[in-house]
Structure of Agmatinase:
Amino acid sequence: MTSWNDAYSGEQSFMRVGYADGPQGVDIAVIGIPYDLGTTGRPGARFGPRAVRELSLAVGEFEWGVFPWDHDVRDRHVVKDLGDVTGFTAYPDRLCPAVEAKAKQVLDTGASLLSIGGDHFVSLPLLRAHAEKYGPMALIHFDAHSDTWVDEDLNHGTMFYHAIKEGIIDPARSVQVGLRTPNPETHGILILDADHCLRTPAADVAKAIRDRVGDHPAYVTFDIDFLDPAYAPATGTPVSGGPNTAYARHVLQGLAGLNIKGADQVEVAPHYEGPGQITAVAGATIAADQLYLLGLAREL
Ligand SMILES: [Mn+2]
C-alpha cells in the first residue's frame, strides 16, 4: 500500500523536504523572508513564505517529482527548509544584516540557496551574500517592473539600481524579462519586455537569456507580478498585460544547465487572493522550478 502525504495535513516545510536547524550536510537550503516594509504599493508579502510553503505541499506531493521534470530533485540532492529569517519585524534597518548573515551561513558550506519572500527588496542582501562568494552575479530577473529606479532610498523599486552601484551584479551579463512599466534607464541590462514575451516563443526567450548569461554565476529572481494579474492577483503592485504561468515555467525550464547559484521567489501577498489561492499556487510552482534549476546547476 502506498503511503500518501496529504497536502492538507501535517508539517508545512517547502515541498515537505523537512526542516533543519542549519545548513550542515545540506545541498540546497530553502529559507523564508517574511518582510514587506520595502513595499511601495499594497503591503502583505510578509505572509508570502507561509502561503507558498502551504501550497508547495500540493506542488510537491508526488514522490516522482514535479511535472514535467524527469526526476525528483529531492532524490538527487539533500534539500532542507531552514525556516524563516526573523528578527527584523518593524525594524527595516535589521533586515539586511539578518538576511546577509543567514545567506552567508548557507553559502559558506557550499550549499545553494532558494529564498521565498517577502517583498522584492530582500533580493539586495541576498545578492550581496552571493556576490561575496561568487563575484558579480548575472541577474536573471522576471518582473513587471525594472526595480532600477535611480533613487538613493532603499525600497522594493530601487534595489537593483543599488546592486549595480555596489558592483554585485554585472549588467552586461544580466537580463530583465516581462517588464511593462515605464523604465527610463536600462543601465546596460538586456530587457525582454512583456510585449516581446507575448510575441515570442518561450524557448526563444530562454535562448536569449542563455546567450546573455553564458556560464557566468547566475542568480534567478522571480517577482510573481511577472505574471498577468489573471494568474497572480495577490501581489503588491500588479500590472495587466503579462504572460501566464505556463509561459513563465517554459522559460524557466529552458534555463536548465545554466550556472545558477541562487534564486528567490518574491511578492506573493496572499490576503489579496480571490478564491483558489492561485497566486500562492503559482509562487510555489515557480519556486519548485527554481529548486530544479539549482539542483541541475549542482550537477554541471
Ligand atoms: Mn514587480
Remarks:
- The beta strands are 28-33, 79-84, 112-117, 138-142, 175-177, 190-192, 218-223, 260-266.
